[in-house]
Amino acid sequence: MSAPSTATATATPAPQQINVADLELPQLAEVKRQLEEELSHLTSSFAQLKQAQAKFRSCIESAKEVKPENEDKTVLVPLTSSLYVPGKLRDVENVIVDIGTGYYVQKTRAQAVKHYEGKIEYIKTNLDALQETIQKKQDNMSYLVNIIQSKLQHANKRD
Q1: Is residue 60 part of a domain?
Q2: Which residues sit opposite 61 in a β-bridge?
Q3: How far apart are CA 108 and CA 156, in angstroms?
Q4: How far apart are CA 57 and CA 52, in angstroms?
Q5: Residue 53 maps to a domain
Q6: Quick one: average pLDDT of 85-108?
Q7: CATH of the domain at 132
Q8: Residue 41 has pLDDT above 60, yes or no
Q9: What are phi and psi of 92, to 5 degrees?
Q10: Phi/psi of residue 100, nearest 5 degrees
Q11: Which residues contact 52 (CB under 8 A, 6 or more apart)?
Q12: Reduced to 3 states, what is the DSSP secondary structure of residue 1?
């Protein structure tokens, strides 16, 4: 016979909130460094999303340029944003769409435009949320800098 097992639940303690005004200058400097890193990462992510949004807008323009009057004409086909090769348009109703991770599908021009508009809208939603987060972090940074300056002034008055 084995003894019944008893499991003790260990509750994860809730994170403590600390008033930054109570921290010493070296601790404040570390918090400031962490905030700067977070802001740098967030602004970099914001810039990358903006670039992706511009790329999708460019894709929409490319899809709209495929017109029936260009059938069998030699055109420059974009392979990348800076590499174009000559080619002839045989099917002006359909385009090949990069749907990500190296997968391509055939869509009508209207479907391609709708696909890329959806991507742009999704990125816009993320950009809006990211902008709000960046603003909050910048506000936190301003508050932190004010506290550091206040503590430095107070320390200089004692000397």
Answers
A1: yes
A2: none
A3: 70
A4: 9
A5: yes
A6: 91
A7: 1.10.287.370
A8: yes
A9: -90, 0
A10: 110, 155
A11: 119, 123
A12: coil
Q: What is the rounded CA–CA span in Å between residue 34 and residue 148?
A: 15
Alpha-carbon span 67 to 55, nearest angstrom: 21
User: Please, are residues 89 and 71 in contact by the beta-carbon 8 Å criterion?
Assistant: yes
Residue 19, class by beta-carbon neighbours within 10 Å (0-12 exposed, 13-18 middle, 19+ buried)?
Answer: exposed
Over residues 46-85, the pLDDT tens digits come to 999 999 999 999 999 988 888 888 888 888 877 877 899 9
Total domains present in the chain:
1
Domain that holds residue 127: 27-144
Rounded CA separation 56/113 (Å) = 9
Which residue bears the tokens 């004010």?
Answer: 146
Is the separation of the CB atoms in 32 and 144 below 8 Å?
Answer: yes
In whole angstroms, what is the distance from residue 141 CA to residue 112 CA? 43
Considering the domain boundaries, does residue 149 fall inside one? Answer: no
Instruction: Classify residue 35: in a domain, yes or no.
Output: yes
CA atoms within 13 A on the CB side of 152: 9
Which among 120, 100, 96 has a CA at the least distance from the CA of 109? 96
